[in-house]
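We modelled the chain as a single entity of 130 amino acids. Its sequence is:
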Amino acid sequence: MRTAANITLKQSTSLIFLGTVALFLFGLSYFPYTVETWYSTLWYPKLGQIMRQITAKIPFSLGDIGYVLLAIYLIVNVVRFIIQGAGARFPLDWWTWGGYKIITFSLKLYICFKLLWGLNYNREGIAYQL
């Protein structure tokens, strides 16, 4: 079982990097013109084309696959996390390591959502496009 002392410099750097990227994407959402010109016209059309090519070959949505994989991942890791903690009687190090894992997973999920779809919510709007 990992402990707080085992959170390495590499993991700390990774956490800082993920936090910085998440803050950048959050801040970017306050600039709809930038989102419109950079994300909506340059990045997202290429991403959409790749996703359409992939989904044209399968009869179901990539989102459906993502939800199933996310559910399996969460169930397996929550059960594993509880078993490891119960064996050690839930020490402080266990909570620290668990908090680290939850924060990094949440940051990765937020970044993926914002890049794959979420920035579309921060566009200029229909009045700008007309």
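As a brief sanity check on the tokenised model: DSSP finds five helices and no strands in the chain. The chain has one domain: 7-129.
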